[in-house]
Every structure is written in C-alpha cells, then in structure tokens.
Amino acid sequence: MMLSAVVVASALKGVIGLVGTGFWLIPLLIIGLSYYRYDQIDPESRVIDKRQIEIEYDFIIIGGGSAGGVVANRLSEIPEWRVLLLEAGPDENEITDVPSLAAYLQLSKLDWKYKTEPTGKSCLAMKNNRCNWPRGKVLGGSSTLNYMLYVRGNKYDYDYWEALGNPGWGYDQALHYFKKSEDNRNPYLKKSPYHSTGGYLTVQESPWRTPLVVAFVEAGTELGYENRDINGEYQTGFMIAQGTIRRGSRCSTAKAFLRPIRLRNNFHTAMNAHVTKIIIDPVSMKAIAVEFYRNGRKQIVKARKEVILSAGAINSPQLLMLSGIGPKDHLREFGIPVIMNLPVGNNLQDHVGMAGLTFLVNKPVAIVQDRLPAALVTTNYVINGRGPMTTLGGVEGYAFINTKYANESGLYPDIQLHMAPASLSSDAGAQVRKVLSLTDEVYDTVFRPIANKDAWTIMPLLLRPKSRGTIRLKSSDPFKGPAINANYFDDPTDVAKLVEGTKIALKISEAKVFRQFGSRLHKIKIPGCKHLTFGSDEYWECHIRHITMTIYHPVGTAKMGPSTDPEAVVDASLRVYGIQNLRVIDASIMPTICSGNTNAPVIMIAEKGSDLIKNDWLAAV
Q: What domains sit in the chain, N to C, each tagged with a CATH number?
C-alpha cells in the first residue's frame, strides 16, 4: 500500500515536534505507515471531535484518560442518557501507537509537563532538585503516554480498602471488574479463572524480547521465586511483562473504549477543551454545569444528572479546589469562595523508585539505539507489528519480591522490580536523560562513559510508601499548574526498604544465568555520593535520593472513605461529600496506593464507578 502525501506530512510534523533530528528521524517518518494499519486493527477508526456541542447533557465527564474513557463508554450504553466527554488535550497521533517510543511522548505537547517541588530529600540529581511528573494531556490520558504495563496490584490492597470502611471494594469485586474490561490474548492464560477474553482492553506480551529478560526470570527462580502470572492467585514472583498492546501497538483507553463507540448518537467528545471550573449551586449544593475554554472561548455546558471528575490525581484536586471544594484556609488564600471544606489534595502517594542501577554485558543482547538497523526495524514493525519497536517502553520483565520488612506470609511483597534491556545512556543521551531531568554533571560523569554500550537495568520501586504528599494551588488561574509536593522519603522507612530492594536486585544480577553475558555492575559513583563507600547501604541511600524516579503513579488526592474518616473526600459510591451530583472516578479516590502499576486498577475503578452510577439512576426510574 502506498503512503499518501497527507500521511507523510502528518507523520513528519509529529516526528519533528517530538524528537527533532537524529537517528530516529528516518524510522519515525515511516511510522506514518501505521495510519493505514488502523483500518485493519481498529475498524471503528478515530474518535469524532464534536465541534458544536449541546447546551445540556445528562452526564458530563471531565477528562478523557484512563478512567474517563471507560466511564464514557459504559454510561453511553444507556441510549436515553446523553453523555459528553471533555478532554483538555488533542487526539492520539502516529507516535503514540508505537510502544517503544513512550519516552518520546513525555515533555511533548501531549504531556502536562508537571514537576515536583524541591524538598532536599529526593530528586537531588535532577535539575533544580525537581522530578518530572509526566501526565497525559491527550485522549486516553496517561494510558497514551505510559509504558503500558498491565499490573493489577495485590488482592490484599482491595480487601484493605474495604476494611477501611469502603463496602464493595474488596478483592472479589475488584477481580470481577478487572475481568470485565480484559481481552487477554496470552495463550497460556486462556483457561485461568483470573483472566478473561472479549473485553475492550487488549492485554498481551510484546511479540519481541531479548535473552536478558529470559535470564531475569530464571535468575528469580535461582533466588527461590516462582515464574508466575503476577495477576493471578499470588503476586510474589517473576514474569515477562504483560502490557496493554494490541498486535504490537499501544492499546490506550481511547483506542480500547472510545473508538468502538464513536458513532453512538448519545455520546459526544470535545477535545482541546480545558475545564476551568465545576459550577455548583450554593443553595441546593448540586453540581449543575461545567465551565471550559475551547479555541480561546469560554463555554458553559449544563449537567442534568451528574458531573464526573476523571481528570487524574493532580488535575482532579486542582479542579475541585478551583471550584470551591477543598481546605478552607488554603482556598481563602487565593480568594476562592469556600463551598465545601474538604481535605482535597491531601494523601498524595506515588511509587517512588530508583533509576540508574546499571549492569554492563559483553554480548550484543541489549537495546542499543544506534545499532538498530532503522529501515529493517521500522519495516518489521509497520508491516508485521513485530520487532524492538513493540517493547513496552523498553521494560521487558517485572518481579514482586520480599525484603526483610515485608509481611511474614510472603504473599504481600513490598518491592517491585522493573527490568529493562537498556540503560539511561542506551540512546546516547537523546531523550531518557531529558525525561528524568538529569543534570549534565550526573549524566556526563556516570552515564556518558557507557553511552551506546550493551547494558541492562533493574529499577526497584517501593510498593506501599508511608510518606504522604500534597497537591496545592499555586494560583487561582486554572491555566497554571498546581504545586506538587511528592514528599518522598518523609518517612525514613521508605528509603530503608528501597535500599533492601536494591540489594536483592544486585543478587539477581549475580545469578549464574547472567554469567553467560559477562554481566557486571557499572560502578562509577554519582558525584553527590563520592564521599561514601560504593555498595554500602549509605551509598545506595544516597543514590536513591539522587536518581529518584517516579513510576508515574500518583494517587489518593480525593480519598475514598467513610464519613468518619477526616481525610475522606468521597464515599464508597465515589460521591463528593456534601455536594450532590458530583463524583470523582479516577486514581484520586484510592485510600492507599495499590501494589503495582496503577493503570489497570484505574480502569477497574472506572468500570465499578460506572456501575455505581447506573445503579443509582436506573433504580430511581
């Protein structure tokens, strides 16, 4: 099939905007070919951007991301309900479809480009001591930007939510909603009672892998861990990663849940629609409308039944506060009339991790960007949906392990490991260093000497941190981002657990199976840690505090809990306390962070939240 001039121009525009010039320019140009593949893979085609929306809908959903796309799909299943989805960003583009290019989407126009506030306890190797916090400003939200890893968390997470006073949120119900979404295409999981087929969300392994991930899983068995489905009966163990991909291409929630319903008459989507306020009647205390800007023009659309806030753990609390719902003293600082005094923006949690733990190998088995034959790799991806471009942002395997701090049962691991067949310098400093915001001193000292060399990485992350951060307004201007205080390592046990996780990662790297590659630890010291003995607990703590890495999982800022919980913002039906017809359905509602990557749990939350809405309104008829 010939590549049209229109597609070439579109691809060229997207490529230059994202990556500039260099090695990846040639294959990225050809990524335009993926356009014609949509006709084969996604017969529904792209979501329609409704130019002229109506003045009133039954339900208005704010945010077309991992949660909002699911809610829009499920609510519009009721033909009598008119549903509007408002998304601040544009549609997906050619590049978002390619799994291996996840890092190139960060810091682009599809990213809110948030940064944490400096605390002096973490992110010390980053510019101005601030970590980048990528968030999707695009249809599909962060599911269009993320590394696509499909991880559900531990069953004890959800049983704990229920024990906190949230009936209906235990593991059995969570499993029902995980399975409702899922179309798992891994043949060995076909008969598993923990998985299902036929759902909207495609889950499968990358069709391409390096021998390093096979060795990683085998190393786990050497240490006494099982190679198992970590989304099955037990979580503890090692696994080749499953991801939200479909025939080698990203399967965002936009592709999974919105494209199939694009022609529903009762469903409208408005992109590039930046919501600035939820309008609440101060007499009835009902959410009655939403204010947003589109093409520079302010618009207001009314909600007959409900406003559903699915803008994510950063933007949802910001919007609530801008609308007069939040800590009263904080709102008054910015002259915002207080409608409801609630602890919005508290309880911020994230999976903090350690980047930069690097192992060199003697064989050409890792991903080295400059060594990949551009034409061959790209052609294989475009025509067959195979090859290195199908890797899940570069992550090939993960593991859930127990440190000495973990639950004695061994069934509730406290550390997750991500394994990647590459290093921070496998792209010779082209993009990954920018995504992390590493200083020139740290990159040039530690990673430039091994640029373009075969290497692999283990990234330990803390599954259930005790530290809590906050989201706060910086301004009453809705177009300015909020202040993000991740507050990493406020509780000293958090960094202590990560040190133990790092030591286990080192044991994995020393397993017999890695000897065939000549694997060895890269030992150049981080400049800020030169005074410490390399490999000591003190050194690893220093490393963790310097090359601190978010795993892009902020949650908890509109906490779900009973009315007796002073930190709760929403009840077990996800309704905002004291405000009628307003719900939050996204990662914000998590009382505690789940033990693993958060995208699949957010989709589960959206599935359940949609049923809660249906039950309330259909029962009232």
A: 5-36+93-137+207-240+352-550 (3.30.560.10), 48-92+138-199+246-344+559-621 (3.50.50.60)
Sign of the CA dihedral with 572 first, then 573, 576, and 577 last:
negative
C-alpha–C-alpha distance, residues 8 and 570, integer Å? 48
- 397-439 pLDDT tens trace: 999 999 999 999 999 999 999 999 999 998 888 889 999 999 9
SS3 label, residue 229: coil
Q: Which residue has the higher pLDDT, 431 or 597?
A: 597
DSSP string covering 21-87: SSTTHHHHHHGGGHHHHHHHH-TT-SPPB-SS--SEEEEEEE--STTHHHHHHHHTTSTT--EEEE-
The dihedral over CA atoms of 73, 76, 82, 83, expressed in degrees to the nearest 10, equals: -10
CA separation, residue 535 to residues 502, 529, 541, 543 (Å): 10, 11, 10, 10
Asked if residues 588 and 343 have their Cβ atoms less than 8 Å apart, the reply is no
Cβ(104)–Cβ(560) below 8 Å: no
Strand 358-360, strand 520-521: pairing = antiparallel
Catalytic residue among 268, 418, 543, 553: 553
Give me the pLDDT at residue 24, please: 45
User: Quick check: 153 and 413 in contact, CB under 8 A?
Assistant: no
Binding residues for FAD: 138, 275
Element (H, E) at 182: strand 182-184
Q: Which of 111, 132, 103 is nearest to 548 (CA)?
A: 132
pLDDT in tens, 185-237: 999 998 999 999 999 999 999 999 999 999 999 999 999 999 999 999 999 99
Name the binding residues. Answer: 138, 275
Residue 553 falls in the annotated catalytic set: yes
